[in-house]
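Model: You mentioned two targets. I'll fold them one after the other.
Researcher: Yes, keep them separate.
Model: Target one:
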Amino acid sequence: MSRVKKGVNALKHRRNVLRRVKGYRHGRKSKERLANEAIVHAGTHAFAHRRDKKNDFRRLFQTRIGASAKALRTSYSKLMGDLKKKNILLDRKILSTLAADHPEVFAKIVAASK
């Protein structure tokens, strides 16, 4: 059986790893071992933060709705409770968009919920 040298594959792997860490600081951009470790950690954080992003946006939506509701002399919790009782099925993302971009429509929704 002939001998197989792994030089081509090793260079290909090293090149791909170093391409993925372009823009990183210090040895993590140029040393293969540190670059591999950086890729693993970056992937872990990216996975977790994709989940966190959903919570961050929900918090933003609640803040926007609460601020607009306060301007209309009600509170966030009372507004959401009233909407649920009246069976007005608008989610927080839509309510937030209406509160920020179309305050007159939001005011009508608040009036309809009372």
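Model: Target two:
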Amino acid sequence: MLGMEELLIVSFLFLTAVNCFVTYLGSSSCIKRASKHKDYVGAIKKLRIYDNYIFTTLLMITSVIYVALSYFYFKSTLKVSDYFITFATIGGFVLTSFTTFFSRLCYCYACNFILKTKLNEFDCFMVNTISLAKVFYPIFVVSFVVPTIYVLPYSMQTREILIGVFLGVFVLFYIATTTLFNMLTLGARRIKKGKIFDVVSALFKEHHIKKYRIYYWDSSKSNDSNAMVMGFSRVNFFISSSLVQSLDDKELEAVILHEIGHIKHNHTKSNVIHQTIYLSAIAAVLYYAIISDATNIGFMLILILVFLLLMGLSVNVSKKQEDEADLYVAKHGLGDSLISALRKISVDGDEGDTIHGSVEDRHENIKSKK
């Protein structure tokens, strides 16, 4: 029978092989499309969709498994039970980073072949590691600070107040650094002049958005056609070069209006609330597991269940937000231009998928409200 250390090693080798194999299959199908049909634009878009829907999701599932296995490994080797989840988070992050590195080599090769350029594999790995760190670091900080407060020589009530204060401060810090992480991940830079700045600024002013910053990133290698908004007191708008280059003026205006729709429906603020609930739920499970001395498999399963449940709720909320933002565009008479833009950046035109769902489903949503 395998010990915990051997089980961790075997699991790492197996999960890395699975991630590499799935990435290889997806990447090779995109390369075949490029080489057989000479459809390089469609191939890279298909690869991008695979990355968002399959490769990244598989890595997230892998990371959850790594955290669980690391938890039981450290539980069997250490006696400081309050910090099992902290060590498990570190272990899960490190193992997932290595798995990411090996699996992303296939992805980089596919991008290099399809785009006829040379992506730097290390840079690609670093971008994904930063994205991974964005997911892990809130859990790591919470899992370290909560047990630390628990062992302080104060009353239960005082410790719970301190944990509440910590969560409030940390959530504010987390919100403040989200834009920075996005800039690092995308390699985006803030712009203060130029055509894109003028177009976005004019639309923001027309829709009475006063506090904003505009960021632009070069996506010529990844062909990542995307735009997004984030922020609480101030709007941070991100847009990629591929999106700008692939759309005409009306389509570009429709996409920007879609992001304005997110702002007008307070989605950026509600997302902050969702992040607060997410971190608070993890902290609550961790804290009450500690005070009840729940250092068994039940605690870890509950923590993973909470994590997966919140991810599922996040997907549903995201779908609703996209529908509301689409309808905001339709309300201002550019619904058809938005659908035209989505078809251009989807994998297979009318029936294709975008990052936020099927083009046809979004078209039906817009038509149903006309």
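Researcher: Noted. Anything on target two?
Model: The beta strands are 189-191, 212-217, 227-230, 235-240, 353-354, 357-358.
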